[in-house]
From TrEMBL:
A GO cellular-component term linked to this record: cytoplasm
Pathway stated in the Swiss-Prot or TrEMBL entry: Amino-acid biosynthesis; L-arginine biosynthesis; N(2)-acetyl-L-ornithine from L-glutamate: step 3/4
Chief place of localization: cytoplasm
Record-given protein name: N-acetyl-gamma-glutamyl-phosphate reductase
Pfam families according to UniProt: Semialdhyde_dh, Semialdhyde_dhC_1
E.C. no: 1.2.1.38
Keywords assigned: Amino-acid biosynthesis, Arginine biosynthesis, Cytoplasm, NADP, Oxidoreductase
Catalytic residue list: 153
Subcellular location: Cytoplasm
Length: 349
């Protein structure tokens, strides 16, 4: 009998779920024992995803908590907002470990959740119990957790790019502007007018200005790090590519700091964290340079003329922004090396 950790994936037919399947297929200590769908139970997952032919031939299971409890030790939820809020509590109470990829448990205020997601929040006790799994920053809390709320894709790129400078007081948090761009897989597999080919191809669109649900998530963490309330301007754009997020951030520098000072600060802050790579002076990361990998690459340019720093941070939204970071959190929860099953070299070109 296999001694591997048993994994169930709810939402396995979505982009986040199918990326979990891809990454977990080569995990040395974990195996997927149930792929779950609320709409296609009883059909083979490879029918909707032929790239899984010969890799995952089993039928999709229904969302049935008792069956999940019998088949799994850890449950990943890669479901739309509102689903995990209802499903996670019962699974947690049954003793399962939960990693939720949706936004349902990230915000610790039910009121904020309702305001930004336009839905009723999960029960207060569970909002408080869920650990915000930004692994490089809150890894110590993840170690003891049985319930992880995986950060959003944009917040992952943005926060990893901002936290050291905010924490050290090297930038004025009230001046931060975040200009973020995402590939279309960030919107999930469902078809919509805004994401179909002829709307997207040869096009660049800003969306959800001042209304994006990741604004309170970014502000929650920056306020925690700055130990005072921080508000930011955060603008998202849709780019005609499949994977990738670039967050370009601007802020006023406090004190005399060069580009190299920032590079040294970040290298020291992230020392030993294998998934954050700090670029040398004059080199700014591109999304293709992290494609298919769990890396977050960060580059800097201080402008002595304006007194501002530009910070460029890139991730693959489906890996470090979703499934990869979720597996990194699982590794930490289990007391394993955080890089297990995640040591991919980015696919280039
Ligand atoms: N795409 C990305 O880059 C990122 C996504 N996320 C978040 O992860 C979650 C999943 O995103 P993504 O995979 O892109 O979305 P998709 O739309 O691609 O997939 C969502 C899946 O959820 C399942 N689902 C829908 N309703 C229910 C329900 N009531 N009960 C159980 N399952 C349900 C659907 O499968 P079925 O009908 O078969 O059940 C669907 O395949 C979202 O909350 C998203 O915001 C977070 C970070 C990055
Ligand atoms: C390109 C695109 O549409 N991206 C999505 C990201 C969705 C996401 O990850 O949402 P949660 O973090 O709330 O789960 C968006 O901007 O809403």
């Amino acid at each position: 009998m296999s001694t591997k950790l048993k994994i169930a994936i709810i939402g396995s037919t979505g982009y986040g779920g199918v990326e979990l399947i891809r990454l977990l297929a080569s995990h040395p200590l974990a195996e997927v024992t149930s792929v779950i769908s609320s709409s296609s139970a009883g059909t083979p997952i490879a029918e909707g995803y032929p790239h899984l032919t010969g890799i995952r031939e089993e039928l999709l299971d229904d969302v049935e908590p008792d069956a999940i409890k019998a088949k799994a030790d850890v449950v990943f939820l890669a479901t739309p907002p509102g689903v995990a809020a209802k499903l996670a509590p019962e699974l947690l109470e049954a003793g399962l470990k939960i990693i939720d990829l949706s936004g349902d448990f990230r915000l610790k205020s039910a009121e904020l959740y309702k305001q930004w997601y336009n839905k009723e929040a999960a029960e207060e006790a569970y909002l408080q119990q869920a650990v915000f799994g930004l692994a490089e920053i809150y890894g110590d809390q993840v170690l003891d957790a049985s319930f992880i709320s995986n950060p959003g894709c944009y917040p992952t790129a943005t926060l990893l790019g901002l936290i050291p400078a905010v924490k050290e007081g090297w930038i004025d948090p009230s001046t931060i502007i975040i200009d973020a761009k995402s590939g279309v897989s960030g919107a999930g597999r469902g078809a919509s007018l805004g994401t179909h080919y002829s709307e997207l191809n040869e096009n660049l669109k800003a969306y959800k200005l001042n209304k994006h649900q990741h604004i309170p998530e970014i502000e929650m963490v920056l306020s925690d790090v700055a130990t005072k309330p921080v508000v930011t301007t955060f603008t998202t754009h849709l780019v005609p590519m499949t994977r990738g997020i670039m967050s370009t951030m601007y802020a006023s520098v406090q004190g005399e700091r060069s580009t190299n000072d920032f590079i040294e600060l970040y290298r020291s802050y992230y020392e030993g964290r294998r998934f954050v790579r700090i670029r040398p002076e004059g080199q700014w990361p591109a999304t293709k340079e992290v494609w298919g990998s769990n890396y977050c690459d960060i580059g800097f340019a201080v402008d002595q003329r304006t007194g501002r720093v530009t910070i460029v941070s890139v991730i693959d939204n489906l890996v470090k922004g979703a499934a990869g970071q979720a597996i990194q959190n699982m590794n930490l929860m289990m007391g394993w090396d955080e890089t297990l099953g995640l040591q991919f070299v980015p696919a280039y070109p």
